[in-house]
Design brief:
The chain contains two helices and three strands, in the order βαβαβ. By secondary structure, the chain is of the alpha/beta class.
Length: 97
C-alpha cells in the first residue's frame, strides 16, 4: 500500500496583514520609481533586469533603477541602501537562485 505524505508544514506564526504604501498600478506607474536589486547569484542580474523590462512594459510610466549586491551571502550594504531609499518608492529584490 502506498502512503502519501503532505510535505507542507504547519504554520507556527499568525499571518500579519499590511497595507501597501504605494499602488504602482495607478496611472500606469506614473511617479513611481522601482529599485531592482540583484542578489549576486549567477544570472540574477539578467533575471532582475528582465523583471524591470516586464514592469516597464506593463506600467509604461514607471521608472526602474538597478543595483547588484554581487554577493548573495551578505545583506545589501548601508552605502547601497543609502542610494536606494531616497531614490525609490518600492523595491524588488532577487531572492534565491
Amino acid at each position: 500500500m502506498i502512503k502519501f505524505v503532505d510535505p507542507r508544514g504547519v504554520v507556527a506564526t499568525p499571518e500579519q496583514s499590511y497595507e501597501l504604501s504605494r499602488d504602482v498600478r495607478l496611472n500606469e506607474g506614473e511617479g513611481i520609481t522601482v529599485a531592482l536589486l540583484a542578489n549576486g547569484f549567477p544570472d540574477s542580474e539578467l533575471f532582475t533586469k528582465k523583471v524591470g523590462l516586464a514592469l516597464e512594459k506593463r506600467l509604461p510610466k514607471v521608472k526602474t533603477l538597478f543595483w547588484n549586491k554581487h554577493n548573495a551571502g551578505v545583506a545589501a550594504n548601508d552605502e547601497m541602501l543609502d542610494e536606494i531609499f531616497p531614490a525609490c518608492d518600492v523595491a524588488v529584490a532577487a531572492y534565491g537562485h
